[in-house]
Design goal:
By secondary structure, this protein is mainly alpha-helical. The chain has helices at 9-17, 22-28, 35-42, 47-57, 80-91, 102-110, 118-127, 134-143, 150-158, and strands spanning 4-7, 31-34, 61-64, 95-98, 114-116. Helix content is 53%, strand content 12%.
């Protein structure tokens, strides 16, 4: 298992939509988030951002200040949160990056980082009895506008 788990904004917002941020703690313990990810998650007020702030306040999510993260040149097409999450993952050997953005995943793969996305995380949670139905969770976030599909879940299960 990864010693350090780092999350990007997309999966955090999707888990907040599901009221499922507790899954991170149950699966991984404390999860690190870069300061830029925190800003992205809290940019819009609402129930999802409130849930993320509560997870930060309860130390389920630990915010790493931007000035504590080594920077490197990454494609400009990546957002600040994705860049900081990737750089933080590089800083921590044996880290696991939770990221859904396709360009960020490609960059993480090029850099040899270990990463998973929201759908795999939900499948793992279901396997461990922490989630009743990964299908329902995927469908809920898909209907809320996230780019996920049951096809991805089926592919994961067929591996």
């Amino acid at each position: 298992m990864a010693q350090v788990v780092i999350a990007d904004a997309g999966p955090l917002l999707a888990l907040a939509k599901l009221d499922g941020l507790h899954l991170l703690e149950k699966l991984f313990g404390t999860v690190l988030i870069p300061e830029a990810v925190q800003r992205e998650c809290l940019a819009k007020s609402g129930e999802d951002s409130e849930r993320i702030q509560q997870a930060i306040d309860s130390q389920q999510l630990h915010v790493i200040p931007s000035d504590a993260i080594s920077s490197m040149v990454l494609p400009r097409s990546l957002g600040d949160g994705e860049k900081e999450a990737i750089c933080l993952a590089i800083q921590h050997e044996h880290s696991l990056l939770i990221v859904d953005d396709q360009l960020a995943r490609r960059q993480a793969a090029k850099l040899g980082l270990t990463f998973i996305g929201l759908v795999r995380l939900l499948a793992i949670a279901e396997q461990q009895g922490l989630l009743d139905s990964a299908e329902q969770a995927v469908e809920t976030v898909r209907l809320a506008g996230y780019r996920v599909s049951l096809k991805i879940l089926r592919q994961i299960r067929d591996e």
